[in-house]
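User: What would this chain look like folded?
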Amino acid sequence: MRTNQLSLDALWGLALSQEHVFSPSDVAHLPEAARRYLDHAIAPGTVIASAVRLKMHGEIKLKSWIPFTAEQVVCWDRGFIWSATAWMNRLPIVGSDRIIDSVGAMQWKLLGLFPVMTGTGDDITRSAAGRFHTELMLLPSALCLGDVTWSSPEASHLHASFMAQGEQAELDLTIDQAGRLKTAKLPRWGNPDGAEQRYVDFGAIVEEEGTFCGYTIPTRLRVGWYFGTERFEAEGEFFRATIDDAIYQ
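Assistant: Here's the prediction, encoded as structure tokens.
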């Protein structure tokens, strides 16, 4: 099946079930900040999931802020599909963003019929890979499944380096003393200003968290480009989401 034809249900069905359960001893060899984050994010005895299925709502900025509802599957082995409906001038725009097996695509249609935005190719794939890397904060068990190199320059900052979806991830996380995630940032391929494609600082501010199936994850997020600079709030922020539900397998 072609990447842009795989359904959200089909991706969820492809997720590999795991038998291993999380124990703090599994991460005892990691830097203290990484242990603190993972111990907070995954309850002892929780099955190490390879995928999460999310329901969410929020706003996305397309010149102005417009509301959306969405469902998403993030699968460590295969990629993600974000399927949403956004409302512009009371008309629905329906479609998806995705990366499956290192091939990215997006397709959006007015009323589900008339194409308004489509994209494939190397730039779309590379940008989608960066989004996938960032959204692993919603599937923290993936950071136990993959070959991740952790470092911690200070108690509130940690860095995860790993390969996924054909791209090297350099993910910076900030946490508090309890291990709660506060921000996530990485260089993501894109051209938010319409200039040439390049790596631009991209990230998320975590405003709330919640626990689902033994996983404590961000439940209210502000996301955008130029992360960590004054440009983030002025022109980079384009996505605000509230996670309503999450299930893991």
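The radius of gyration is 17 Å. If you want, I can go into more detail on any region.
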